[in-house]
Amino acid sequence: MQDIARRAGVTKAAVSFALNGRPGVSEPTRRRVLAIAHELGWQPSSAARALSDGRAGSFGLVVDRPARTLGLEPFFMQLISGIQAELVRDATPLLLTMAEDQAAEIALHRGWWARRVVDGVFLVDLRVDDARVPVLAELGMPAVVIGAPLGTGGLPAVWSDDDAAVVTAVRHLAGLGHRRLGRVSGPGRLRHTAIRTAAFERVTAELGLAGTTIEGDYSGGTGAAATRALLGAPRRPTALLYDNDVMAVSGLTAAQGLGLAVPGDVSIVAWDDSALCGLVHPSLTALSRDIAAYGAHAARRLRQAAGGGPVADLQDKAPSLTLRGSTGPVPRRVAGTGERRGRAPE
């Protein structure tokens, strides 16, 4: 600051005002100070800033999914890219880490806030009974939930309508003549899984369809195992809906391994369209949304919350169905005679 003040011909106090965006200096002086600071390669000290105004200048995201599933799932990579694209606008870093369970995540949040490591956090994978919400309220820690505004304890949420997306997918399959549907869900403890399951059960009942859900964990292994279980039933489903793209791709391979044609014998719909859905044959019909934009919305709201301003929930666009080669009319032999093709799983 002394070097900048000397070069600019102003006091150190004026430099402080200019660098921190505070009133007290003219706009020409502010621009001159910032230009000299840039020329000298000056960077703000987060430690010094935290001491002076209590701000860390960074945000945090803790994920307590297994590393093997997180590393493979495009959803989180797209979400993080959207968050980063927004935060880079004011050079705010994102502190990303993983926890083995929710208790470990809560301990991280407490430690971060006590040491002012972050100014706020993103909450993902909200649970039906989420222990993080009351803790953050107790701490007074700014946070934004990425998920439905249910059980959020007043925390702002950025979300899309999972219920409406399920209805869209099921009605599409029913319109193709499918009467027996299978679904491979995410973990049942998650709030968005509960919303999707309730919607699936409701809409299949309303349309007079038979619907069966098997719980998975978003990994390819559980997607394949659940697919074999569903397609090994005496009256197997003629269409399958998966809660993410990784399980859907594995389900496609499993179905083909049983000697079933897609979509000739069974139709497949994936959740959260990604490049994976277009790299397989046939390419997968999928529920699509702009996940990167979703992350950017959340980042803007967390910035507002950390600044002390009021922040409202934001409902993003509901996922739309992108039609590809994995869905087609119900097989005639199944619709007319109940005959099934393919070998039984071993």
TrEMBL record:
Give the molecular function GO annotations: DNA binding
Keyword Ribonucleoprotein found: no
Q: Which domain of life is it from?
A: Bacteria
Query: Where are the annotated segments for Disordered?
Result: 307-346
Task: Supply the alphabetized keyword list.
Answer: DNA-binding, Transcription, Transcription regulation
InterPro entries (UniProt xref): HTH_LacI, LacI/GalR-like_sensor, Lambda_DNA-bd_dom_sf, Peripla_BP_I
Q: Which SMART domains match?
A: HTH_LACI
This chain's protein is named LacI family DNA-binding transcriptional regulator
- Give one Pfam hit by family name: Peripla_BP_3
**Where in this chain does the record put each HTH lacI-type domain?**
1-53
Keyword Secreted on entry:
no
Q: Which Gene3D superfamilies does the UniProt entry name for this protein?
A: 3.40.50.2300, lambda repressor-like DNA-binding domains
